[in-house]
Amino acid sequence: MKHILHIDINSFFASVEELLNPHYANHPIIVAGRTKRSVVSSANYLARSYGVKAAMPLHLALRLCPNAIIARPHFDVYRNYADKFFNIIAVDFTNRIEVSSIDECYVDITHLIKEHITPYQIAKKIQNTILSKIKLRCSIGIGPNKFLAKMGSDYKKPFGITSIYQEDLPTKIWPQPIDDMIWIGKATATLLKKHGIKTIGDIAKSQNKQIIESLLDKNWIVHYQRANGYDSDELDYAHNAPKSIGASETFLEDTSDWEEIKLKLVELVKNVVERLQEYQMQTKTISINIKYPNFVSQNRSLTIDHHTDDYEIILLRAIKLYHNNFLDQNVRLVGVSLSHLLSNDKLTVNSELFDDYVKTDINVINKNEISVIVNEINRQFARNIITTADKKNKLR
């Protein structure tokens, strides 16, 4: 079974306007133009409490909420925040993203689930990271497919997280009015209600299949299956290549223990290189980020003279970079990121990649030194997790 997230930024345009104008705080905000025919592009939750909705004529919205602040839209700023939003997920978590609109996306986190890491914990970390980095709140739905994940993100707003799996249908899905079923239009909902189909549970009932088919024609089976919890779990993330890829981890306790930190670097580099290879890209710049116990952060980077997606080469640079800049310092967090990315089809093979010496801007590293480091890492893990590049044994 897959685990899919649907992440939806809460009242996106209005929330960005509040960031741009802090004096808007605690006021109802409506994002709209100023003409007689203007409609509401977005409204914050205070304005929504008056009955204001997106796509509502502005004059009607002002009749419901006469004290609302009208903010002119800044679409270029919204796009910039959207790029930051999607990049946080791609860089800090996973590239398995399907962007569905400027303020929402699906994310496949199946590969991130481990014995001690639940879908909810990953969703909460994503939610908190987005809030911390760009000051925007989001709601997240968790489910085995896109329909249940999106229903989950709508279930508890703002800033909610809701899991909906097959066993949750009787309590979380079926009691909802048919108007709240996503991808059911207003006209279709009205038609169904006229014929006694008032809830999502009514669509799910097998005894109603005949009447639903007569009303919805060829589309009936899709809605029937969704009401019973079945939908696609395949995401289209082929065109979401990031500008950088990173991963970080906070230690349970602040540490300066080089052995502990080195093992964490091995784990983080494995994470970022796997994602780099999934994108079929290569990197030229490796960066190390650390956060001190006082929460101050520091970064160091190095750029090599060729692009690579080789795990061992990247790991060696990361270890050397940390060793030369942060050794013996007490840290609470360590991170690794890759930038200056290019897709494989834009690169030519570097025939000198496996020469006897690998040149970096730190120093010149002999192959014997590489072997020592590789052997030490394998010894720490009590198994051969890496080998030397000249053996042509890639991470995968």
Description:
- Helix 6 links the parallel strand 7 and strand 8.
- This protein has helices spanning 12-20, 45-48, 58-64, 75-92, 119-134, 146-155, 169-173, 186-194, 200-204, 209-216, 220-227, 258-278, 311-325, 367-381, and strands at residues 4-9, 29-31, 42-43, 69-71, 97-101, 104-108, 138-143, 161-163, 245-255, 281-291, 297-308, 331-339, 342-343, 357-359, 364-366.
- The chain starts with a strand and ends in a 15-residue tail after the last helix.
- Helix 4 packs across helix 5 (119-134) and helix 12 (258-278) runs antiparallel to helix 13 (311-325).
- The relative contact order is 0.09.
- It is globular and about 70 Å long.
- It has 14 helices and 15 strands.
- Strands 5-6-1-7-8 form a five-stranded mixed β-sheet.
- With 396 residues, it is α+β, with helices and mostly antiparallel strands.
- The model is unreliable at 349-369 and 390-396 (pLDDT under 50).
